[in-house]
Specification:
By secondary structure, the protein is α/β, with parallel strands linked by helices. Helix content is 44%, strand content 12%. The chain has a single domain, classed as Rossmann fold (3-Layer(aba) Sandwich). The protein has a 6-stranded mixed sheet with strand order 2-1-3-4-6-5, sandwiched between helices.
């Protein structure tokens, strides 16, 4: 049966940009840096430099911040659960799977993306990781998504992780994604979902410029890119309404550690991270 094309397939152009920026920052491998990514990075470099000087942050600076925060949270979960299983959705050209498989060979770590990006990532991994597992290729908004969960041992904890993903969907579609993760993960003794999000930039002195940039990104990616949440409480309520029992929001300004932010207010960061979790009812 021919797989239907997702209306979100155009988002992958951002994966080339982020993949190259991670390589440029020294946290990725050259095989994961594409020519398209290099071109995009050079194209927006002047704008990024201006934003870092006058806005206090840019797309590339938040890329490193969110990547580091998510990695630290995942490391913490692995320390708590040495037999942890990880499913990274919309993994793009992220080095995370490669890095964690090298440093934590005892865990099961699988990656998933749409067909074209999965093929690109698979080719890159084959250059640097002889025993890399096959990339999974399903659409997150079809029943095929459940097949990815079926590949894991349901007697062990599972982490689903995404980065740079959820702002690209409108709220109803985001609700569907979160509901699917919670539903398909309910057979595991523990289910964790780690993700980042860009909150509304209401605390930034140049919020209108950030809003304008987001509209450009929305047009370029042919997606529904938008800011959905203003406070951590908004996030917690939304995730709980869509299937998760515990939700912790980390704002970098409030905590540089692995503890969630204690503040209920938006502290001005351009990016937050979310740790949502469920435990199987006995």
């Amino acid at each position: 049966m021919t797989q239907a094309l997702s209306k979100h397939r155009h988002i992958s152009f951002t994966a080339h940009y982020t993949g190259y920026i991670w390589y440029q920052m020294g946290i990725s491998h050259q095989a994961l840096a594409t020519k398209k990514g290099k071109t995009l990075a050079a194209l927006v470099h002047p704008l990024e430099s201006w934003a870092e000087k006058y806005v206090g942050g840019s797309m590339r600076s938040t890329l490193k911040q969110r990547h580091t925060l998510l990695d630290d949270q995942l490391k913490s979960l692995i320390e708590q659960h040495p037999q942890l299983q990880v499913l990274e959705i919309a993994s793009g050209l992220s080095p995370r799977g490669w890095w964690f498989r090298q440093h934590y060979p005892e865990i099961t770590y699988r990656e998933l993306d749409l067909p074209d990006m999965a093929q690109t990532k698979q080719a890159a991994l084959q250059q640097i990781e002889a025993d890399a597992p096959d990339m999974l290729s399903v659409d997150l908004f079809t029943q095929e998504f459940k097949q990815a969960f079926d590949l894991f041992d349901s007697s062990l904890p599972l982490v689903v992780i995404s980065e740079g993903l959820i702002n690209y969907f409108d709220k109803p579609l985001l609700a569907q994604l979160i509901q699917s993760i919670a539903q398909y993960g309910r057979t595991f003794p523990q289910l964790h979902y780690l993700t980042d999000l860009y909150p509304e930039p209401v605390k930034n002195k140049l919020a209108h410029i950030i809003w304008s940039s987001s509209k450009l990104l929305k047009w370029m990616s042919r997606s529904a890119f938008s800011f959905h949440f203003t406070t951590p409480n908004d996030v917690e309520q939304f995730f709980k309404e869509n299937g998760f029992h515990e939700v912790k929001v980390t704002q970098p300004a409030d905590s540089h550690h692995l503890t969630p932010s204690s503040s209920t207010e938006h502290l001005g960061d351009l990016v937050w991270t979310i740790h949502a979790s469920n435990k199987k009812q006995r």
